[in-house]
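TA notes. Do not distribute before section.
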Amino acid sequence: MAQGRGSAVTVVVALLLVCVLFNARVADSAVYNVGDSSGWSFNTDSWSTGKRFKAGDVLVFKYDATAHDVVAVSAAGYKACAKPASGARVYKSGADRVTLARGTNYFICSVPGHCQSGMKIAATAA
């Protein structure tokens, strides 16, 4: 019986260690308000220039949900301001929180003409 109790303690300690490590990773993530005080709006396309993002960082898109949206797109969709592909992740709350994946993450507003007016960003996360 004593050996079983010791094994259970080892498992609990290991699980606690995993939880601590996971929380340290989350606590290390930064939160960015896209467009700073202006929010997600026209001419936001250069907002990410000079910023150093990491995978796990969070982008907060604040905007008028009756006039805009946020759509995760491919590099080609970003460049062409193309209609999002079927199945693209579309955000419509007006206060969307998006966690960055490693690599370049592309976002546009899919309302006609808005992407062409600079409502798009590319954020590269290391």
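Switch to the second chain here.
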Amino acid sequence: MNTYIENLNWRYATKKFDASKKVSKKDLEILLEATSLSASSYGLQPYEILVIDNTELRSKLQPAAWGQSQITEASHLIVLANQSTFGEELVDDYLENVSETRGVPANDLQGYADFMKSKLMPLSESSKAIWTARQTYIALGNLLSAAADLKIDTCPMEGFDNAQFNEILGLTKKGLNAAVLVAVGYRSEEDSTQHYKKVRKSKENLITHL
């Protein structure tokens, strides 16, 4: 079996982490680089990635995540926070980066800028928030797969109070919203769920070739 597929079969949503085991700085950097390389619509990456190692801060966050043990027991807690809204600066900042990175005159990118703005700026505030949140889930998928490839355990988590997380982490004043969490670390031997067989739809029921 392909090693990548083997690693995806190995991963599961870890319910209990071994608090004594820490992800190395090198592996964490690889994981974060892989996440930063995730695809996003137009390449805009309308989100930020928060890596929380501070134990006191995580203990403060735990009640806002229904008291789940992964928040404090995992090696690190990663918060993917989407931009709550945006204006033309989202496109302008991105194309400034494109211009500097690729050595392309800014004027040559004006047509692309106008195109993106014509699609994104008319969106309602609620639609903007939904769109940016969706981008975080692309990054989430890449993070989970990269972690599995490194044999690092993860648990994606939507079971938390966004408003409380936003307040504790000071996200609202930065125009951000905690969209999804990922506990990162190594499974505990006591986590019985690691022995469950993976359950997925059959390819026949999931995939249609046209």
